[in-house]
Amino acid sequence: MSRLAVCPGSFDPITYGHLDIIRRGANVFDQVVVAVFNNQSKSPLFTVEERIHLLQEVTKDIGNVTVDSSTRLLMDYAKEQNASAILRGLRAVSDFEYEMQITSMNRKLNENIETFFMMTNNEFSFLSSSMVKEVAKYHANVSDLVPPVVEEALKKKFV
């Protein structure tokens, strides 16, 4: 039986922290579907299509990773994909309480799909997409925070 994990997020934009979790998850699971979801509480900088494109570019060298998007409830989407797991990254203890609430609700919706947490590599533990956008808006160097294709896309957004 193939072990498929869905790695959900808004990825607006994808950072090296996200990529770290995706790469490490690809070493654990047979297949990882990176799924772009729109967070209703955020106004995105990049369209869903742009985020999908950027994700495809930065994961094209990882053979068992595919990129998709959904407007559905995560657990419905995961069931539709025949996922056995949800893959989530944790940066710090402050993420844990929020993630625990989401995981508890997801477990109530579908107890057959487990949630796996990976701690982000320490060098990325401070990193968030919101922080990257804020720094990029002021034309600061983000080359050590995001892959080159994402850096270029940010520069075009903040001309």
From TrEMBL:
Residues 6-134 form the Cytidyltransferase-like domain. Its cofactor is Mg(2+). GO terms for molecular function: ATP binding; pantetheine-phosphate adenylyltransferase activity. One of its GO terms (cellular component) is cytoplasm. It is an enzyme of class 2 (transferase). Its EC number is 2.7.7.3. It catalyses: (R)-4'-phosphopantetheine + ATP + H(+) = 3'-dephospho-CoA + diphosphate. Keywords: ATP-binding, Coenzyme A biosynthesis, Cytoplasm, Magnesium, Nucleotide-binding, Nucleotidyltransferase, Transferase. The keyword Acyltransferase does not apply. Substrate binds at residues 10, 42, 74, 88. HAMAP family: PPAT_bact. Homohexamer. This is Phosphopantetheine adenylyltransferase. It comes from Sediminibacillus albus. The gene is coaD.
